[in-house]
Write a structure and sequence with these properties.
eight-stranded mixed beta sheet; Aminopeptidase; 6 helices; alpha+beta; about 35% strand
Length: about 180
């Protein structure tokens, strides 16, 4: 699958993405915001990359200007809404590309894909309470705040984090566009 915006290409990962993926996945400012440890070796990144390659709903975010993979965006099963035509959105972005509107651009494109190609009825997303950058992306993308679940997830280092939950329905997305 290939999706495009003015500045981005969203496509499935391939083995040639290893170096770019490792470059952003090893950064201290990236993984912990999503709950995972910064990658310490390319072998670790390769194991994750192979999972991404085999997941048709995980996309590499490619910056057109330099043809570099700068992050990922994906849909996964929403375990909170069983039996509902719903996916949960997840994303990470290289620290070098923060504060440029890139993730908001990617999220809006993947929402179109989710609602109009996958025919989802609702898409959910969450962020840790201390991840203000992700909160801004979520709010700019039209998601509505549902609540904060305290002590909802233990991350890689054993820290237990609070998460803020949001969702957007197909109707809300259509009315926003």
């Amino acid at each position: 699958m290939l999706l495009q915006t003015d500045r981005l290409i969203l496509r499935n990962f391939n083995i040639n993405d290893l170096d770019d993926f490792f470059e952003y996945a090893k950064a201290e400012e990236v993984g912990p915001n999503a709950g995972w440890a910064p990658h310490s070796t390319k072998e670790e990144t390769l194991n994750i990359l192979n999972m991404f390659i085999n997941d048709e709903l995980t996309f590499a975010i490619v910056y057109k200007e330099n043809n570099k993979v700068i992050g990922s965006i994906s849909f996964a099963k929403d375990k909170i809404r069983p039996g509902v035509n719903c996916k949960v959105l997840g994303y990470v972005l290289s620290k070098d590309y923060h504060n440029k509107g890139i993730m908001t651009e990617a999220v809006n494109e993947i929402l179109k894909y989710g609602f109009f190609v996958l025919d989802l009825s609702i898409i959910s997303v969450s962020h840790f309470t201390d991840n203000i950058k992700s909160k801004r992306v979520i709010e700019k993308s039209g998601f509505l705040y549902e609540g904060t679940m305290r002590k909802s997830l233990a991350i890689y280092d054993g820290t237990i984090k609070d998460r803020c939950f949001y969702s957007i329905t197909k109707e809300e997305f259509i009315n926003k566009v």
